[in-house]
Predict the structure.
Amino acid sequence: MGEPLVKSLARRRIRNASATLLLALAAAATVALREIALQPSSELTGWLLVAAFLVLAGYNLRKKLPMLPLADSAAWMQLHLYLGLLAAVLFGLHTGWTWPGGPFEIALWVLAVGLFATGLVGIAISRLVPTALTWHGERLLYERIPLLRRQLAEEVEALATRSVEETASGTIAGYHADRLKPYFQRPRHRWHHLVRSKRPVRRLCRELHALERYLSDEGRQTLAEIEERVLAKDNLDFQETWQGVLKGWLFLHIPLTYAALVAIPLHVVLAYAFGGGTS
Amino acid sequence: MSRWLQSFDFRKSRYERPNQKWVCGRAADGCPCRVGPDRHGRCRAQAECRPRKEGERFVCCRPQDAGGPCAEGPRPDGACAHPIPPCTPVRSTRAKRGLAARWAAAVAVGLLVIVLATDQGARWLSPGPLSASHASVQDCASCHESAGEGALGWVHAAFEASPPIGEGDSALCLSCHKPGAAPLRAHGLPAGELQTPAPDANASGVQPASLMLADRLFGSPMGGPDGRGGDGAVACATCHGEHAGTDADIGALGDRACQACHVRKVASFTGGHPAFEAYPYDRRTRIVFDHARHFRKHFPESDAAAVPGQCADCHETDARGAQMLSAGFESGCAACHAGDVRGESAAGSTGIPVVAVPGLDLETLRAHEAGIGGWPELSDRPLTPFLRAILAGDPELRPALATFRKIDPLDLREASDAEVEAVTRVAWAVKDLVYDLVDRGPGALRDRLEAGLGTQLSEAHVRAMAGGLPLAAVRDAANAWFPDLAGEIQRHRAGEPVPMPASAFGAPSDDAAGGGEDAANGGQADILGGEDTGGGDDILGGSDDTGGDILGGEEPEGDDILGGDGGGGGQEDILGGDDAGGEDILGGSDQAGGGDILGGEEPEGGDILGGGDGGGQDDILGGSDEGGGQDDILGGGGDAGGDILGGDEPSGGGLLGGDGGDGDGGGEATDSAPVEAALPEPNPESWSALGGWYRDYFALLYRPGDHADPFLRHWIEVAGRARGDGTDGADGPATAIVDLLTADGAPGQCADCHSLDATDGGVLAVNWTGFRPTPAVQGFTHFAHAPHFSRIGDETGCATCHEIAREADYLASFDDRDPAAFQSNFQPIGRETCADCHVDEAAGNACTQCHNYHVGRVRPRAMATGVDRVMGDDGE
């Protein structure tokens, strides 16, 4: 079952990428030929960009209106992805692959390039992060992570309390009070997780192992259970960090879209009003 | 080893709703309430459950995923034993993202509103800095028609139909720039002026597929030869893209842009560019100079000192180093050709008859009783083209002039009455002209010339065309031609008949054998006549009142050669005497102060060998002064004179004499040999060798002085121009003037070197100078000589590109006045000559390296600075 699905996905990717590439080449050729014929292409590429932008922005609308019979979200996602790539080419053709000049043009350019860049980031994240999340450990619902973190924290605290009761030793309890409680209190080591570094958790584990010499067998058993939860908490942080990234890039992509929706109409008006007779 | 934390058992986990806008404020701590906030973000939590009453008891309803029913159970009043303290709900991730998006849109709108509301809004909306050449443009409205209409105006402009290209923003460009006669059309040339070359089937090289495809798909931006494309105009911004930065070269034009319209697509200069056709010669030279003939024949035969040794002796670059210019006449030609211009070696007359008395068949006119008054019998001059032009200024005279030109005015025997009438009218017109010239001067000619030539003349033109005509020459001519001109004109204008005087030669005259009384002959020249009252010139006549006779006498004012006894105002006789006041060479008996050479007995005269003066004038060898005592050199006998070698004066002081007494003792010197002397009478034409006006019998002539004579130059220019402006066609006076002044061997020989180009409408343009670059006028190609000098070897030098065409019949190019039909002195330059260097990897081969797009007069913005601005506000 899995192999045909992979083949199907590969075929879809090849088909969509080829179609996008062909359309991009056609647009570039049209612009080049129109340039040869001294026919300005900015109007053509501009309206193509507007159309592409509306379709791209429509994906968000489509998600909010799932009852509409307008293909499934996966199809829209594919369209969004490849149309975004095509729009990037159209944008380059529209601007002549040059840097912008005036403040408004720069702002519009930043918006467009920001959209494209965040879109690329989104593609990359949506392709890479799920694999990484799977590779790292248990995949968790983003919304449940605080609950699980609290659960772990309570378990560790209970273990520390129990060790005092069972071993009459305050070693684990002290360590818990100094190091583990803050560690379980909130997400930790986000930047390390972003670079997939396990140094912090290894250091913590080393510290736990260093306590073993001071503990009895029961204490070591308790310490092992605590270490298990430390690792679970590390996975929680990892999951939260990367799922946060997976959701967070949209905090750039969507606001940029809204800002562009405001700026583009003004740009169209200015282009026609100040087109110098070429529009 | 991680353990699995997450459970999807409905009894242990809840259903997550990430699309909700608000979440419990304790969710981040891992202990959210089960109720959660409402959709407005208000906390709704009160207790962990809402106990249910079963019978008389309340039962805990806490769900299993929250731990199930609690051990404590509800309170007696039914309240949950685990109340939940209220929290401050927070937005969900999705809601935060939506909020951020709305904020972004709001910020964008706010910024744009602020930008549009400020004075500097347009600056913020500008798509980039202007190029350096437009850096002084401060407001958008200078270049954008809709800029001044505000934001709403922009919206309106964006949605309304675009104005024609010529009325939009491009029109504002043209308020400063004037690239050619039709700036928005191809090459700035009016429609129809561009030649559309047919595709050259034999053209070598590559025709790029992209160019062909673009042409086929999109055509020409301004309409191709087959009518495809636009309306024939292209906006300035199509090629000149502004707002690309201060360093942007907005005038740069890519090679492909050139080929958007051109039928013949060219890959590059070395790949597909058509071969040069007679480049760079597109017309004959303006100055006629046969290089080959001079090199081969004239230079070897001429004085070596006057012959140039190298090209640079006659040619040098202009100030920009672009064009090679020819030396002027003075430095390049005068050494050999100055005498030709002055007419030193001319075989014929060097003067140009401008005003002449046309010869008429007076005998026939008399027979027809034509009332033209006196007219010189001996003139056989034709009506000069200049007179034709001037007389044609009277529209009513033109039919008569036309008739006059069709007949032979010297033989009117077969003429009809109408033709005689036409001759009569022309004769009076000539007299009117002469009279007006005396009366009002040459300035009176302006209106007549403008009307006659049909062209406007400036004051400078008229001044130059008058050539400094002196009053004395005109008066002298008028007196000589028409002695009674004033009276005749007065009678004619009063409508009185002015009969012709009797002929001095023919039978109709009563004084054929002399002695006739030509009372009515107002100054005719009789051969054997006399007793003229009007002052005619008789050869053997006498008794004239004002005439000058050769062997006559008894005139009051006339000049006789062998005459005397004039009773009039004292004219000069050569062998005469008895004049009342004239100066005679061998005469005497003057009454009122004549100056005779061998005369005496004048009351006041100063004679050279005379005596017997009455009035006391100065005699050289005279005596017997009786009057007031004047000074004689060798005389005596004066009453009061002071003689140098005399005596016998009563009151005079003689230097070598004595006994002045009462002055009767002098006069012995009259016995000495008479001295024959007279003022020289040079040939008027020779006398005017330095140029100017002179009279030769019945014509006033102008002799050119030197090179670039203003008289000739302006007459040729004006007449050449009048050929196009005038209405009398190629047979009119303007053409006749041009033909006269530019004929082979004509005085000044202007047209021997200065070619005349026929232009549209018949106008003849005179090339007074060789080619002179006009930087404001651009052609299709441009070339700078100076940068190429370092690339040509000393051995071949200029001949690297300019090789003499030995077999070309250069001079035949000037047989007509078509500058486009010619044979050059030099071989055309081939494309391969340029292609040695002009390749991509060397000197480059972009189209605009050699070609201009804007052709014609490319005029920069004209300054309109008022004097008040220059002087400042205070006017100081």
Summary: The mean pLDDT of chain A is 90. Chain A is about 80% helix and 0% strand.
